[in-house]
Amino acid sequence: MSIDTLPPLRAVIAEHDLSARKSLGQNFLLDLNLTAKIARQAGDLSSSDVLEIGPGPGGLTRGLLAEGARHVLAIEKDPRCLPALAQIADAYPGRLTVMEGDALKIDPLRHLTPPIRVAANLPYNVGTELLVRWLTPDVWPPFWQSLTLMFQREVAERIVAVPGSKAYGRLALLAQWRSEARIVMTLPPEAFSPPPKVSSAVVHLTALPAPRYPAQPKLLERTVAMAFNQRRKMLRAALKGLAPDIEDRLIASGIQPTDRAETVGLEQFCALARTLEA
Ligand code: SAM
């Protein structure tokens, strides 16, 4: 049984001639039961506006609306998708607004009313760039209450990684400092059309009201970026550009100067960033 009265996605794609374009990272979800399931991972949508990036032919959009989203603002770069999205807007009067453009360039905030949740199945490079932006705003709490995002599984694992694991790095620290991050679903390549080369996973991040440990965002970001840029080096070497007395600062933060970045936890990185405050 379909989740709505609109045509199946295969028919929509055929009708609007939406052959997938590699240059736009187009791998579409065609199973509406699956997109409704992803939408449910985003939490209670009935009292939220949802920002969806990259709706494509609208599979996830329909899931979000069928699951009761108060209002969805969808930003899509490919103009070929707009007629299909207009049909969805007609089926859910007043609940879907579509903007054509590049999500990396558009500021959608004046079209959204808090509380705001973000949901997206995006090409992974655009997704990672947006995630880093959403995790590093000038003020916290951010505009979003939660992010529910599809990534290549390997990227999803980097977001939730713990110290000592191969996937642990800048993305894990940025994500976990001020959010709770979990992998809530994994999907095989066949869930998409055309199937990508690798598996995918949905990550759900909830913004914490305040950071887990105090630190100035810019100092923490700089420290972590430097530490993991040369992740195989001992930290006293990788971070020597941060301060002349970096060894003392590492020790004061509970870090051995001979440690490598991948063994150091969030609390210690925050302590180190605090030693750099003027
Ligand atoms: N959400 C749809 C789904 O799940 O079937 C489509 C997913 S497809 C992986 C990614 C979508 O993002 C495509 O529709 C593509 O055109 C769109 N897209 C790619 N880059 C974008 C950008 N910079 N801004 C907005 N949309 C973009």
Automatic annotation (TrEMBL):
Residues 34-209 form the Ribosomal RNA adenine methylase transferase N-terminal domain. The lineage of its organism: Bacteria, Pseudomonadati, Pseudomonadota, Alphaproteobacteria, Rhodobacterales. Coiled coil: none annotated. Its main location: cytoplasm. S-adenosyl-L-methionine binds at N27, L29, G54, E76, D102, N121. Keywords: Cytoplasm, Methyltransferase, RNA-binding, rRNA processing, S-adenosyl-L-methionine, Transferase. Specifically dimethylates two adjacent adenosines (A1518 and A1519) in the loop of a conserved hairpin near the 3'-end of 16S rRNA in the 30S particle. May play a critical role in biogenesis of 30S subunits. InterPro entries: KsgA/Erm (IPR001737), rRNA_Ade_diMease-like_C (IPR023165), rRNA_Ade_Mease_Trfase_CS (IPR020596), rRNA_Ade_methylase_Trfase_N (IPR020598), rRNA_adenine_dimethylase (IPR011530), SAM-dependent_MTases_sf (IPR029063). Its EC number is 2.1.1.182. It comes from Pelagivirga sediminicola. This is Ribosomal RNA small subunit methyltransferase A.
